[in-house]
Amino acid sequence: MPTLDELIVAFDKGLRTVFGPARSVRAIPGEDLPPQEMSAAQRSRAAALMRVNHTGEVCAQALYQGQALTARNPDSRAALDQAAQEETEHLAWTERRIEELGARKSLLNPLFYAGSFAIGAAAGLLGDRWSLGFLAETERQVVAHLDGHLARLPVEDQKSRAVVEEMKLDEARHATSALQHGGSELPAPAKAAMRVASKVMTETSYWI
Ligand SMILES: [Fe+2]
Ligand SMILES: [Fe+2]
User: How many helices (H) and strands (E) would you count in the chain?
Assistant: First the structure.
């Protein structure tokens, strides 16, 4: 069982993820690109898609923090913590892009954080093999989702596209690393359930 200290630290990280500004150590992809002319409709579509991606990163943080809290093996714990750290960059990039497009983050983020944290903690309790398998499958589904967004983002929005392209490369790497750390392939019903859960998130955070 996690200690009270670990629970407090996890709660603090959650509050900072949902309510605090995220910082990026790496250069923000597409930062040097000149802003492109876009119609109001294009801007609002791009902002909604980037809001979905931001909420996805909030969920990724929560999943990895939840998993790290219940992971048994210190190596897996470190790998999960590392993954969560890297995801804060994505959080910063998407947050900044939403602001540049003149929109706001999803109001549902606290709810999604809590739900994802619980799912992550439950996955961690199943043991490292499944927990890492869950991480790999999450990342694979995120890559597929980001591909879908690249098809929907306006061609003019080169800045958002640069962020999404870079995130896609990172997520694919996270999936590979989880498998290398010993993650198992999840059963098909688990994968299907994950797709349903993420559909709920993507379709609501597009609007709210
Ligand atoms: Fe990410
Ligand atoms: Fe990732």
Answer: 7, 0
